[in-house]
Amino acid sequence: MVEETSQETASGQVLELADIQGTVLRQRPSPYTGAYFLLRVDDPAHGREMLRRLAPLVATATNWWDPPKRAWLNVAISHSGLRRLGVPEASLDSFPPEFKAGMAARAATLGDVGDSGPEHWDAPLGSTEVHIALALFAPDDTALQSVLATAHQAHANLPGVSVVYRIDTPQLPTGHSQLGFVDGIGEPDIEGSGVADIFRTGADHYGDPSGFGDPVRAGEFLMGYINQLGQVTPMPEPEVLGRNGTYVAFRKLHVRVAAFRRYLRDNAATPDEEELLAAKMIGRWRSGAPLMLAPEHDDPAIAVDPQRVNDFGYRDQDPRGLRCPLGSHIRRMNPRDSLAGTAVDPSLHRALRRGATYGPGLPDGVLDDDGVDRGVVFIFMGTDLARQFEFIKSQWVDDGEFTGLGAEKDPLIGANDGTGVFTIPRRPVRRRLQEVPRFMTTTGGEYFFMPGIRALNWIASVGETSD
């Protein structure tokens, strides 16, 4: 299947699919395997030459599903990386302050404190020595080795660019997260992306486009287009640099699987009660079936039915959280219609999510930490880091005020410290779980800019006469 190079939205905007890095609009297949590489640029000319070589290899929204392209390479650059590559000062200054500061400097806002503080991150994450990020994914090891070889060729004879960090992200054999849950459900339908239409017409694809709600304006995820505010999303200058780009929040999260299992065991009387408690904390059963549609028992048939798995709201169906607790993970990450009539419009705070597991799974039944590093590389994408990613993390994840829960935090990814509470509404008396620990610890992160293809070539050619 070959897609068109552009596509018009319902509001008349034309998405330039051939200029958009594919991971923004497309999801990779399952199963998958992959790796992230973080690079330092010591010689700007070598860095620009590598970008020049990489640009034609980047998987775009046009060729993402073509059989010859069953391996995916995408590129993003930090603010310090843009500076090192020679991007003019006027362009560097046109980026928003949170991107210029970098993720480590935003740690307090993001709840990256205590064990998750930047002083504990894997080096060189959190420093100014991370300049370029490469994401490589494929459906199997053979295809991954092929795209790895291609990336190595782009790096050949360029000693001024070095790999400073690598993390391999093969999918677990179960296809689930480290905690045993199906992931990647409930992504927004981006206006003009064509994913929902392709899915609904039964066309061949490699993605998993389940979970569509009302389309979200393209400008929420791509620069140069109208956003939910009815405005063209601000972008860095010049236009060739910003258009069709987006921001990436890259986070490496260590998952404390044994601690999660112990917490379930300590707060439930039977294995069935453990599963229900896990579902209450997340908002879905491990299969992916939502509590809103399967409140008492898991129903895997719902989880595999894309017409049902996200066909629910909260405001009329469950205003008190008796089915899906108000403070559950999925209800915090996307409140849907539960905030209707308030000053908060959830559509202004959506973000694209791309996660990949790393490390081996903890064997079933093990309740003690084995000392192995395992977790998830979590990716958020959007055109406004402050209004999207940072708002979600600081207001919806780490604060309970918007749901009337006071200081309660997200039980899964919140900055809990062992003194937290998780409330489960029920009749006649609610249940309040005590001493919620932190189940995911941040061990690294950075803000990147993911340019369009034209922008990659512009960066590759800028400043050549100054070296």
From TrEMBL:
<dbReference type="GO" id="GO:0004601">
    <property type="term" value="F:peroxidase activity"/>
</dbReference>
<dbReference type="InterPro" id="IPR011008">
    <property type="entry name" value="Dimeric_a/b-barrel"/>
</dbReference>
<dbReference type="InterPro" id="IPR006314">
    <property type="entry name" value="Dyp_peroxidase"/>
</dbReference>
<dbReference type="InterPro" id="IPR049509">
    <property type="entry name" value="DyP_N"/>
</dbReference>
<keyword id="KW-0575">Peroxidase</keyword>
<dbReference type="Pfam" id="PF21105">
    <property type="entry name" value="DyP_N"/>
</dbReference>
<comment type="similarity">
    <text>Belongs to the DyP-type peroxidase family.</text>
</comment>
<feature type="domain" description="DyP dimeric alpha+beta barrel">
    <location>
        <begin position="19"/>
        <end position="155"/>
    </location>
</feature>
<keyword id="KW-0560">Oxidoreductase</keyword>
<keyword id="KW-0479">Metal-binding</keyword>
<protein>
    <submittedName>
        <fullName>Dyp-type peroxidase</fullName>
    </submittedName>
</protein>
<keyword id="KW-0408">Iron</keyword>
